[in-house]
Design brief:
A hairpin with a 6-residue loop joins strand 1 and strand 2. By secondary structure, this protein is an alpha+beta fold. The chain has two domains: 162 residues, Fructose-1,6-Bisphosphatase, subunit A, domain 1 (Fructose-1,6-Bisphosphatase, Chain A, domain 1, 2-Layer Sandwich), CATH 3.30.540.10; 102 residues, no CATH class. It has eight helices and 13 strands.
Length: 291
């Protein structure tokens, strides 16, 4: 069966719709922030439940935003499929459903722990896939009022179609390609996330990550030759926001699940692949030796 195809105009309409949808969903997140940060006598912390453990949680806001986004997509594109993180995690389906059909993939609140602590680094993440490949990506951080987006073949942007902010093409560098030098990752910033697997076992995910952090931070020649001497290690508590920073060449690499996160990571592939070759004709850094 042949994969469905959409015209350039249809894809542009989907991209424009996704931009607006991300910002509308962000308003719901901000409403939740207002409720959580109100006066003590009127503060509404909302529903909160654990999934895998105490650092893997879901709030009522996650569920509300996902329901809103799904409803808006269904109204405009009733034939499209939808995969939402929260309904997927809840067990409504444990199959990987991305096939050749037009499919939306949504994380309604990336950075739920940050949101519960009113730490502003959280966002809504929306992707549209066609033929099994992401072709539209939108990440909106409502507290920062910043959007990162891309349409395959048309580049990646910060604050595209924003009401009051200028559109900036990603990556935010001037001049020719800024290929990382032979001493990389020395002098770079290293992005990482702790993840939800906190088992204290030798060779486990948490211990491997800690080893990666130390390797990257250690002096050149240290750690048995694995020392990277990076300028710093940053953990923002949300994977989606780390990807656009990668495009700014603010992060030399992103470590997730103790491994270098591939640019084919579904929700962010579109944004990354539209700008990654601006830095280099291949991966800017072979990270495997530091993990």
């Amino acid at each position: 069966m042949a994969s469905p195809s959409l015209s350039t105009e249809e894809l542009q309409d989907i991209y424009t719709f996704a931009l607006g949808l991300g910002r509308d969903a962000g308003k719901i997140l901000l409403d939740g922030v207002e409720k959580r940060s109100g006066a003590e006598h009127g503060r509404d912390m909302g529903k909160q439940e654990e999934k895998m453990n105490a650092v893997d949680i879901v709030t009522q806001t996650d569920l509300d935003v996902e329901a809103f986004v799904k409803n808006e997509i269904t109204k405009k594109y009733p034939s499209h499929k939808f995969i939402g993180e929260e309904t997927y995690s809840a067990g409504q389906s444990k199959e990987y459903l991305v096939d050749d059909s037009p499919t939306w993939i949504v994380d309604p609140l990336d950075g739920t722990v940050n949101y519960t602590h009113l730490f502003p680094m959280f966002c809504v993440s929306i992707a549209f896939c066609l033929g099994g490949t992401p072709v539209v990506g939108v990440i909106y951080a409502p507290v920062l009022d910043t959007t990162y987006s891309a349409l395959a073949g048309h580049g990646a942007y910060q604050d595209d179609a924003h009401a009051s902010k200028p559109r900036k093409k990603l990556p935010l560098i001037n001049g020719p390609k800024a290929v990382l030098g032979p001493q990389a990752p020395k002098g770079c910033i290293f992005g990482c996330e702790w993840g939800k697997d906190r088992r204290d076992v030798e060779g486990g995910n948490m211990m491997r990550k800690i080893g990666s952090f130390i390797n990257m931070a250690a002096e050149i020649g240290g750690r048995g030759g694995k020392g990277g001497m990076v300028h710093g290690v940053r953990s923002l508590g949300r994977s989606a926001f780390s990807y656009p920073l990668f495009l700014f060449s603010q992060f030399a690499a992103i470590i997730s699940a103790a491994l270098f996160t591939s640019i084919s990571s579904t929700k962010y592939e579109t944004i990354l692949t539209q700008a990654i070759l601006t830095f280099t004709d291949s991966f800017p850094l072979e990270v495997q030796q530091w993990i």
